[in-house]
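Re: that chain you flagged

S.,

Sorry for the slow reply, it's been a week of failed gels. I finally had a moment to sit down with the sequence you sent. For the record, here it is as I used it:
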Amino acid sequence: MKLCGLELPDELCDGDNGANGECDCVEMVVRGKRVPPPHGHSCAYVRQRSVLVAQAVEMADAAVATRSPREDGGVSYATWTKVFAQTMDDLSRPLLRQSGNGRS
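Prediction finished late last night. Pasting the C-alpha cells below so you have them in one place:
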C-alpha cells in the first residue's frame, strides 16, 4: 500500500483484524485513505475505548467550567483538555490490563 509516496510493507498489516490486517477503525483513515494498522493494533480495544469518550466528556464538563478564550486566554479550555485526557486514561486503564498492554 502506498501512503504519502511511501510503499508500506505487508508486515505492517497485522493485529487481530483479519487475514490481511485491514480493519474498519476510523483511526486507520489518513487523508481519506485507509492505512494498515500498526503492530499491536487491536480493533476490539479501539471500539471499547471509543465508547468511553462520551463519559469522559461528561466528566470533564462537570469538573471544568469553560469560558470564552477572550475571557481567560484559553486557560479553561486547556484545563478541560487535561482533565479529559486524564479521565480517558483512568477509564481505559482496565481495558489495557485486559489486553495485556498496560501496567497493573
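What I noticed first: Strands lie at 2-3, 6-7, 29-30, 33-34.

Talk soon,
D.
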